[in-house]
Amino acid sequence: MTYEAILYETRGPVAIITLNRPERLNAIGQAVREEVHAAIEAAHEDDAIRAAIITGAGKGFCSGADLSGAATRMAAGGAAMPAANTHTERLDEMGWVGRWAKRFAYFDKPLIAAVNGVAAGAGMSMALACDMRVGSTAARFKTVFVERNLSPDSGMSYFLPRIVGYSRAADLVFSSRAVNAEEAYRIGLLDRLVAPENLLDEAVALALEMSQWPPLAVRMAKRVLQHNQDAEFEPALRYESVALGFARKATADTRESIAAFTEKRKGVYTGA
Q1: What are 65-115's pLDDT values in tens digits?
Q2: What SS3 class is residue 252?
Q3: Domain 6-211: which CATH class?
Q4: Less crowded by CB within 10 Å, the N or C end of the chain?
Q5: Up-side HSE of residue 68: CA atoms within 13 Å toward CB?
Q6: H-only helix segments in 67-214
Q7: CA-CA-CA-CA torsion for 154, 160, 161, 163, nearest 10 degrees?
């Protein structure tokens, strides 16, 4: 597929998706939505890809939904937010913001946000939906929604309290204040904090570290972590046991992991 609003590249087993509208701080318009969905699907379908990174071109990570033309639409009696573009969107009660959140959350390989600048509104939600966030010292988070007479969307109301706790989430949403990189790292919005010039290299190094292990084990581990964050204790243990059953099967990667341990060498895993 040819992309116009994003860039898609690979570095070994790592896919890198870059929102490429720097003049709009990578605001999410229809083209970005469609192309990001397609790129994540491509990374999902490609067995050679074992982890993915999403980042932004220029000075911003993502400024949120593209509201260009909102004033014109409102003056004409329309809504501030863009209208649904397809029959599917009009019939889907979650709208594009729900599908946007699900596309990231249901990606079954490790997904890292490399936050290079402002992450606001749905752009912040996108970063929160990733498994981890690596940020440069130029990173900045802002919930924005109440400033636009909106409540949080794109998964923010789900992810933010689970990452920073309810009261901190309430602080960030109700005040709509900006959070700089140092505070973001301190409260858990960022998992790594690095110099701007090292951001992508650090994110790739982290993705490669994750990619060295048997891919089935990593994918099952992600599924267990996501499922059990809301599960009761004993159902969580049962889910763990089911997942462990898959991992214990006598696959080629299982045999290779045992051989690598016995021979004191690094394993070479194929996903078989």
Answers
A1: 998 755 444 344 444 555 555 555 554 567 888 999 999 999 999 999 999
A2: helix
A3: alpha beta
A4: N
A5: 10
A6: 70-75, 87-91, 95-105, 122-129, 156-164, 166-175, 181-187, 199-211
A7: 140
